[in-house]
Amino acid sequence: MLAALVTEDHLVVLGDDALISFAGWASLRATLCDLPASYHQRFPLRRGMSREEVRQRLQLTPKLWQSVLVATMAEGWLSADETTVRLTDFTPQPTADRQRALNRYISALTHMPLHRDPLNSTVNYRRGHMIMVCW
User: Fold this and answer.
1) Strands 84-87 and 78-80
2) Which residue, 14, 23, 54, 113, is the most exposed by fewest CB within 10 angstroms?
3) Phi/psi of residue 20, nearest 5 degrees
4) Which of 26-29's residues contact partners 24+ apart within 8 Å by CB, and which partners?
5) Contact present, 56 and 42 (Cβ < 8 Å)
6) Distance of CA 107 to the CA centre of its chain
7) What confidence tens digit (pLDDT) does each residue in 69-111 have?
């Protein structure tokens, strides 16, 4: 009976000892997709959202969370490492505004001459600002 429900897509098997309705699985997947998506928008330079934070927000036990994580990673749209969860197609990168600001900053630095201090220090002062130089 259970095998027929799984074969007919009425139930989804999670791990060795968990079943969820197909509608429940679709709802859980949608929520699980929304969590890292909104996190990526808020923090575009971070690799991903904390695995534990996602588990707690979904209110899953650690064992069930592991089964859900394995199932979603098998579907290919979610990736995880030891500490974070992210959408598979996500790459950390600055927003367009931040990238323009970074480009202006880098351009300004490349046009500033560096003066070495006589003691070969890595700290230089330019226009009243301290600049750390690493080489």
Assistant:
1) antiparallel
2) 113
3) -140, 145
4) 28/58, 28/68, 29/72
5) no
6) 29
7) 999 999 999 999 999 999 999 999 988 898 888 888 888 877 7
* Distinct helix (H) and strand (E) counts, the chain: 5, 7
Q: How many angstroms from the chain centroid is the CA of residue 50?
A: 8
**pTM listed for this prediction:** 0.69
Our measurement of the distance from residue 46's CA atom to the centroid of its chain's CA atoms, rounded to an integer in Å, reads 6
Beta pairing class for 78-80 and 49-50: unpaired
Count, residues in the chain: 135
Closest to 98 measured CA to CA, from 49, 44, 47, 38: 44
20-63 tens-digit pLDDT: 888 888 999 999 999 999 999 999 999 999 999 999 999 999 99
- The residues facing 130 across adjacent strands are 125
